[in-house]
Amino acid sequence: MPDAPTARGRATRARIIEGAAEVLRERGVAFTTLDDIRGRTGTSKSQLFHYFPDGKDQLLLAVAQFEADRVLEDQQPHLGRLDTWESWQQWRDLVVERYERQGDHCPLGSLFLQVGRDRPGARAIVSELMRQWQRQLARGIRTLQANGLVSPALDVDRTAAALLAGVQGGVTIMMSTGDSAHLRAALDTGIEHLRATAHQPLRT
Description:
Blueprint: H1 7-27, H2 34-41, H3 45-51, H4 56-73, H5 85-102, H6 107-115, H7 120-146, H8 156-177, H9 181-196
């Protein structure tokens, strides 16, 4: 990643990325050119290539990171404080609402189709997103354990991984069918499983 050592340089780079994300959401990756992005962000060609010397693919990866960060940001503040059943329900509702609003267009997925999911940079972005998401879910489950709301025998990391897999599967089906029923079912079943473990005896 090119250096942006000054506050002004970092702000310029961030402005380009955010503006590019807006254009890409509106027009789609396939129909967006660097000229479109320059026009939206008020950036000269020399400026654009100063921060993204490898051109469009490098900028798309930066936008993909921006969109990945938004996935988690859009779930706050509830994802960061999953300490009661009420907070879990609020998080569940927020996730459903976010993806219903997104509909069948996934900006992050479109970006990865353009730059290639198998590229090391793209895979690293997806891996880090999933790692952070699962870690926050696991933290919430451990908080429930500490509060006596979930069995201390529960395998936290495995449960968080299964819940995340359910969310991702539900989103994939919703994008294909336009129906959020599977996403809702995955979230409801995952949370119901957590609640049920409170009444399970400890393993010996």
